[in-house]
Amino acid sequence: MPQAGPALAGPDDTRGPCRTLPRSHRRAARRGRDWSHGSAKEEALKTIIEPFRIKTVEPLRMTTPAERRAALAKAEWNLFRIPAEAILIDLLTDSGTGAMSSEQWAGIMRGDESYAGARSWFVFERRVRELTGFRHIIPTHQGRAAERILFSCLGVSGRVVAANTHFDTTRANVEYLGGRAIDIPIAAARRPADEHPFKGNLDLEALEAILGGSEGDVACVIATVTNNSGGGQPASLENLRAASGLCRARGVPFYLDACRFAENAYFIKLREPGQGDRSVESIAREMFSLADGATFSAKKDGLANIGGFLASHDDRLFRLEEELLILTEGFPTYGGLAGRDLEAIAVGLTEVVNEDYLEYRIASVRYLGEGLMRAGFPIVRPPGGHAIYVDSGAFLPHIPPREFPAQALACAFYEEGGIRSVEIGTLMFGGLDPVTREERLAPLELLRLAIPRRVYTQSHMDYVIEVAEEVARRKESLRGFRIVEEAPHLRHFTVRLAPAGGGHGVRGPAKAETVEARDAAAGGSRPAHGATAEAKSAAARTERPGFRGPLPLWERRA
Ligand SMILES: Cc1ncc(COP(=O)(O)O)c(C=O)c1O
Questions:
Q1: Which of 388, 491, 527, 541 suits 101 as a labelling partner, its CA being 20 to 30 A distant?
Q2: 294: which strand partners?
Q3: Tens of pLDDT, residue by residue, the chain (558 residues)
């Protein structure tokens, strides 16, 4: 990686795959631990570098600890509420935060902004079809728009959607439409410390049971590749083939949530027997060929700052999707995007399968993971494709899940060094069950440090590791939080928190807005909050899909 800060490491430096490593270590790093079956290319030189150089730079603003403490209190300990200007290293997400290449910027200039039939649409469509093979391609402004259109048109109300792990927006869109999202990862995925090459696999026994009707009618099955909420872990080709076969035998659509398809395909190349000699592009094409459709956020492996698509082979479903697309996103040849975005995505979808890029990408994530482990943090192992996940429940056992240990850690990283990360635990996935109205706990309390693509250098990662060491030194002093106010869906984005145990006066909204209040004002007929679950899901079934949720917008906690 470029050495913006420290001097180049010498040949004996074994701190990580991005430094100069002994050749044997470096080969192991390329191939990925003991499961390696890949025939990684032999090279004369040992250092894995960023396969690009920097043409434009964006200055970072330094802040003091006092400024950061004040920012945290003002944001009510919700890092989404902190202005990006007050962040030094932003590891909140790898979504839409990547740096575009000179070719992508050239595409931006070529963008054709015609309303209908723009040249840029055909460039985009050609690349997506070449890669995925799908007959129907619908451009969307981002991944969640594809999810909403898909679940609305499939009709998930009162039905089950099963996935290795639903991402937060995926789960929320299923539940918003009255469906039930069930996660069926393999057992190893629930054990952060276990090493397993494909923790993103679906549990095939659980899948068979669900397809057999154990949980009700199944609307579709989703493999999230890589599995973001499960540690950025890949699914194997073998597992995808088996899951696809089971779904096809039952006539249930099998979808990929393909946001990080290239990182997943690269792990397959490195780790799966018999795949080492294939190109990432060819592995990716096989992954898509196993699916009946895909949702995609181009903000990840599209290497773009915005965009997405929804794709399938299903003519009938496509007609419904296209109708909803026109109603809510835009005409089918731009779908909520500018022509220039379509160009940038088309180029990104080619650059992302470049294996020099993927080698650097996976190595830089692993470098951070190994540094955090040395600093004493238990992480989800092995390191994922786009992020490192700290098992915060294990790291801070004195903070119970209901007080959000990963959020405590996220705030500590910000306070200590201006680093923004995100809680992926009970704050994100807990909340009130939409049917039972009981408080849910997440299976794991994770802190995710996601690495934007092609943005930070090795010295940035060294800084993050140093901050982590400081946080580890004062871990006993960290305290949890309680919720002051939350939304019923995706509450982590807007939640207001206060330190657990009280003592901090925090502001609520002037007036808690509810859907009933809005509907009453508009003369509407939404089911009242507190109506029975049956009444709510009956109401959801009779509504035209996609426009209304059964729950109030805001809830204040006592
Ligand atoms: C696995 C997964 N699915 C879906 C999405 C939603 O994509 P978007 O943010 O573009 O709506 C994300 C975003 O982070 C994701 O990681």
A1: 388
A2: 256, 311
A3: 444 333 323 333 334 444 433 344 444 445 445 565 544 454 567 788 899 999 999 999 999 999 999 999 999 999 999 999 999 999 999 999 999 999 999 999 999 999 999 999 999 999 999 999 999 999 999 999 999 999 999 999 999 999 999 998 999 999 999 999 999 999 999 999 999 999 999 999 999 999 999 999 999 999 999 999 889 999 999 999 999 999 999 999 999 999 999 999 999 999 999 999 999 999 999 999 999 999 999 999 999 999 999 999 999 999 999 999 999 999 999 999 999 999 999 999 999 999 999 999 999 999 999 999 999 999 999 999 999 999 999 999 999 999 999 999 999 999 999 999 999 999 998 877 767 777 789 989 999 999 999 999 999 999 999 999 999 999 999 999 999 999 877 899 999 999 998 543 332 332 333 323 333 333 333 233 333 333 333 333 333 233 233 333 344 444
Q: How far is CA 191 from CA 91, 92, 245, 248, 294, in A?
A: 24, 23, 27, 30, 28
Q: From the CB of 224, is ligand 1 less than 6 Å away?
A: yes
CB atoms within 10 A of CB 524: 11
Whether 422 lines ligand 1, by a CB cut-off of 6 Å, is no
| CATH code for the part of the protein at 137-329 | 3.40.640.10
Please name the helix (run of DSSP H) or strand (run of DSSP E) that holds residue 181, with its range, or none. Answer: strand 180-183
143 lines ligand 1 (CB under 6 A): yes
User: Distance between CA 548 and CA 558 in Å, rounded?
Assistant: 27
The whole-angstrom separation of Cα 205 and Cα 196 is: 18
Domain 23-56+355-499 class?
Answer: alpha beta
Distance 44 CA to ligand 1 centre (A): 39
Q: What letter represents residue 321's amino acid?
A: E
**Is the Cβ atom of 278 under 6 angstroms away from ligand 1?**
no
Q: Distance between CA 197 and CA 270 in Å, rounded?
A: 10
Residue 231 Cα to ligand 1 midpoint, Å, equals 14
* Domains of the chain by residue range: 23-56+355-499, 137-329, 515-550
Contact residues for 107 (Cβ-Cβ < 8 A; gap 6+):
123, 340, 343, 344, 346, 347
Pocket of ligand 1, candidates 94, 297, 305: which has the most ligand atoms within 8 Å of its Cβ, to mutate? 297
